[in-house]
Structures are given as C-alpha cells and as structure tokens.
Amino acid sequence: MAQSDRDGFTSAFGVLVATLGSAVGLGNIWKFPSLTGANGGAGFLLLYLASTVLVGLPVMIVETMLGRTARANAVTSFETVAPDGQWWWKGIGWMGFAASLFILAFYSEVAGWVYAYIFKAMSGEIATVDPKVAGRAFDGLVSDPVGSLTWQWVVLVLCGGIIMFGVSKGIEAVTRKLVPLLFILLLVLCGRSLTLPGATQGLAFLFSPDFSKITPVVIMTALGLAFFKLSLGMGTMLTYGSYFPDDQNIPATTTRVMLADLSVSLLAGIAIFPAVFAFGFEPAAGPSLVFMIIPAVFTSMPGGTVFMTIFFLLTAIASIGAMLSLLEVPVAVLCERYGMKRGTASLCTILAIALLGLPAALSHSAAAHLTLFGLNAFDLYDFLSSNVLMPVGGILICLFVGWVYGLPELERHLSNNGDLRNRPLIRGVFLLVRYIAPLSIAVILLNGLKLL
Ligand code: PHE
Asked: Model pTM?
C-alpha cells in the first residue's frame, strides 16, 4: 500500500516521541528498579546494558526497517518481505499478536495500580516513610479484587478510547505532550533522592558490581528486560516502523530512542536506590518496591503531596504511550487483514485483554491459587512474554534478516536508497543480526530455562 493511503506519523519529531513513548513506560519506572534490586544491582545493570547495545539496538533497527519496507501490520509485513512460498515467516507476526495481548493483560494491571496511587497520593494516605505502613497500603490495593479489576478496566477503556483515533491523531498527538514532562519530573526526584542521608550506599548498589549474584536466570532476565524496554521481538517496532516517513534515518532514530530510554531507567534507578537505603527498605522487594519508595522520597520533601501526585500522574501517562503501541499491533492486524473498522478492532482487542487480564488482576486475591509452574497468572504472563516470546521473536527476526533478507536489501533500506552514508554501520548491524544476536539469545535462553 502506498504510504499516503495509510495513517502514519507526520514528522520526524512525531516519530521520535511516539517511538520513545512506546519504549518509555512502566518498564523504566517499575520493572527496571525492581529487577535491578532483586538481581543484585550493578552486575545486573551491566548485563542489561550489554544486552541493550549488542542485541536490543540491532534488533530494533532491523525490525523497524522491515515495517517501513512492507508498510503493513506485523503479520502482513512478513508475507510481503518473505520470498514466495515461505509463508511460515508470518508466524513471527502472529507470535507478536499473542505476545502483545499477554503483555497488556498484566501491564494494564500495574498501570491500574499507578492510577489508584494518584488518588492515594492526593488524599495523603500514602504519605509515609515507614516501610510497614507503605507495605500495608500496597497490599491493601492489590489484594482487593474489586479495586484491582476496576482500575484495570479504567486503564483499558482510556487506552482503547485513544487508539480508536488512529496513529497521527491518537498516538502521536498524545505522546508529543507527555514524554518531555516525564523527564523533568524524574530530574526533580533524583535531586531529592541524592541529597538524602545514606544516598551513597544506594549509588554503590547501583554502580559497583558484585558478580557473585549472576546466574543464568539473571542473564536471561537482563536480556528479557532489554527486549521489554525497547518493545522488541513482538511486532510493536515493526508496526511503528510501518508509519515512519520514507526519509526517516532509522539507525539514528532508534539509537536516540535507545539512549533516551536508558537515561530514563538510570534516572529512575538514581531516584529510587539511594532512598531504599536511606529509609531502610529492602532492595529485593520486587514489584512493590516503587510503590513504597516513591511515596517515601516525596513525603520527606517540601510540597511532597503535590509532587507525588504529579509523579504518579506522569507515570500513568508514560504507561499510556507504551500501551498504545502494544494495542496498535493487534488493532492494525484486525483492520488490515480482516477489514474491520478501527473502532470495532479496538473494542475487540480491549475485550480480549479484559478477559485475559482477569486472572492477572485477581492474582493477588481471588485467583492467587491458580498457578502454573509455580507462577500466578500475573507472573506467568510477564515471564512468558518477556523471557520467552520476545527473545524468541528476536531470534526469528534476526534469522530472517541475516539469512533470508540479506545484506544488499538491508543496505538499500537502511540507507534510504543510498541517501544516507552509513554503509559501515549497516554492515556492523548485519553481522550482529546474522551471527552474534541470534546465537547469544539462543544460548542465554536455553541456559536460563535450564534446557542446556
Ligand atoms: N517498552 C515498554 C515499557 O518499558 C513496554 C512495552 C513492551 C511496550 C512491548 C510495547 C511493546 O514499559
């Protein structure tokens, strides 16, 4: 389909904020600090950095390129770019379709907690630096089935409402305003956290590595986080790539997004770990960490209630950018392959997620006993998507580009038909996606899943 017939991003800035809006989300503010805390700090951070640069970035570049070349949804794109007869490649797109629903099913729940915290912050209920009080407030929220479900549905209705408006009027218009605001607020928060007594201990935890904590599972988790953070291996970047203008410099844009996303995660880490140690919290507290630390940091500063409210508001907003990009994967497939209207496709997707999300929302209350491999629905969806579906999608995309698509086509599309002088860079990307990335993902995954 010609570019002009489809909706798409309208400017280079729009591309940058929408893509960054997809990358930046609860992954930075909720997942990154809790995983870094639970997996020993700086050693994990180094593994995460290596995975992001050596595997994440090259996958992001080629995935986006495939989308822009095919100008279609995740499934149809593989049909378009694969050689005749090789229909199986579109399986990658369908895997992404499934992964996006699984991610949304638990992501919308965490976003729901954030929304609830906006009101808790306003009411002063969570204005405490006492780990016990903070813990009780969080447990009270997640173990309440009605509250959990209601908040999840609020989030789904809101995001469904925006996605209906399409790419330029929905996604681009919303993310333009939100991404810059989030940066400013994180800086304020870091300033406060760094001036707390005990801040150096937190920084040491984040920046001086202790390699004794590193196990195959920790390495797999770091790689999974790199995929989750950059929204890779499941069709989001491919679908967004299909909305990029023809003259967008893909390697430059994706590198910027990667760096900005990394900065947000590091800022979140710097805001959180000094406070963890200053107030005597447990760095390995897991998913609840952020919901206890952030109130503590704000409570201890002047104007805390206002800043705390704004912070949760912005986190809620950041989660919207990510969720819109997740929703766009199934919505685009339903519209383009089944001729559905955008409104109908959005509604069907939201309903499917609400259903799939039910056991996740109730996994700390009514459905806590429903477990598979020892994981409740919430943890299972997270594990399955981040540690299995996304990395496997990544391997397959690499194998496709490295062994089927080939260097000449890659050069043509990543240099915008020769307009950009970036040949050595493209060759580097090609080597990474042909050999290094698929091999390392496979070894890490097999080791982490104890299959090797
Ligand atoms: N990157 C998002 C985050 O960090 C999550 C996400 C994953 C978004 C996959 C889209 C696709 O919060």
From this structure: 0.93
